[in-house]
Write a structure and sequence with these properties.
Blueprint (H helix, E strand, L loop, with lengths): L8 H4 L3 H13 L8 H24 L11 H13 L3
Helix pairs in contact: 2-3
Length: 87
């Protein structure tokens, strides 16, 4: 049986792990959203962070706007150290 998972999902969604954790939590808890609020908060924080990175890269003319998978850890560390908490 072929896999239904999009092979580009992780490349296109830097918060895929957080998103999937939210889905697993909902499934495990009978879709009671209150029990999964921490997962939702984590996912939303991730989306805000990478949205800011993407917006800043776009403003600086850097492409791709969303860094490649191999660069994300480095970009995240540098961004957290230099930009995210100072603005």
């Amino acid at each position: 049986m072929p896999s239904l998972k999009n092979p580009d999902a992780e490349r296109n969604n830097p918060c895929l792990k957080e998103q999937e954790a939210s889905y697993r939590c909902l499934d495990k808890n009978g879709f009671d959203a209150e029990k999964c609020e921490l997962y939702f908060d984590n996912y939303n924080t991730c989306k805000k962070f990478w949205g800011k990175v993407s917006k800043d890269r776009r403003a600086k003319g850097l492409t791709p706007y969303l860094p490649d998978l191999t660069e994300r850890d480095h970009v995240k560390q540098e961004y957290l150290k230099n930009v995210y908490f100072t603005s």
